[in-house]
Write a structure and sequence with these properties.
This protein has about 190 residues and is mainly alpha-helical. The protein has one domain: Ferritin (Up-down Bundle). Helix content is about 80%, strand content about 0%. The chain contains six helices and no strands. Helix 2 runs antiparallel to helix 5 and helix 4 packs parallel to helix 6. The radius of gyration is 17 Å and the shape is elongated. The structure holds fe (ii) ion (2 copies). The site of one fe (ii) ion has 7 residues, from helix 4 and helix 5.
Length: about 190
């Protein structure tokens, strides 16, 4: 993670700084959401006895996401210290709808790790490319490297589990994927 120095805001309008400042608390909350989701994924993988290294890798992703949440909150504090608002209720609702441990593992893997982290990686990458303010660029660059690995873990673990899934489990995953796209539209695309 980059050393959080002061943001260099000369040359930016107040409106631009305000717009950027509003994004960081949202990013921090989103990163904490990912940490909670991957914690549930790591636990479910252990309960469902998914072969290692997966549970271990999911647990490492939790630590990365907590680091991202801290970094986003830190950048926010350099811009206007509005402070992120963390709300675990949507995560609890998300997890409550998932069934047996293997169903939970596959749903979280496909939708949250593979699909969502792929979108997240693309957004962070696009943000870093467009960013000219050095602190912003460093923070986005530090996060994107982890997101590349997270989505790769998601797709690789999904690929390794897929052959062992029954027809019913695969059908359930199709429904999860469809619902996932709807959720991304609301939770990721609209705020972005
Ligand atoms: Fe992240
Ligand atoms: Fe991630």
């Amino acid at each position: 993670m980059p050393q959080c120095k002061a943001a260099i805001l000369t040359g930016f309008t107040l409106e631009q700084v305000g717009f950027a400042a509003a994004a960081w608390p949202m990013r921090a909350a989103e990163e904490l959401r990912s940490a909670l989701i991957f914690r549930a994924l790591a636990r479910a993988a252990r309960v469902a006895k998914v072969p290692e290294p997966w549970a271990e890798r999911f647990a490492a992703m939790v630590l990365n996401e907590v680091g991202h949440a801290r970094l986003c909150a830190e950048v926010d504090s350099r811009l206007d210290a509005r402070g992120p608002r963390y709300d675990a209720r949507p995560v609890r609702d998300r997890l409550a709808g998932l069934g047996d441990p293997m169903g939970r593992v596959t749903a979280l893997l496909l939708v949250e790790a593979a699909m969502r982290e792929t979108i997240s990686m693309a957004l962070f990458r696009a943000g870093r490319r467009a960013a000219t303010e050095p602190l912003t660029r460093a923070a986005l660059g530090a996060i994107v490297g982890d997101e590349v690995r997270h989505q790769r873990n998601g797709w690789a673990a999904m690929t390794s589990l897929w052959p062992s899934l029954s027809g019913r489990q695969r059908e359930a995953l199709q429904i999860e994927a469809t619902n996932g796209f709807g959720a991304f539209e609301q939770q990721v695309a609209a705020p972005a």
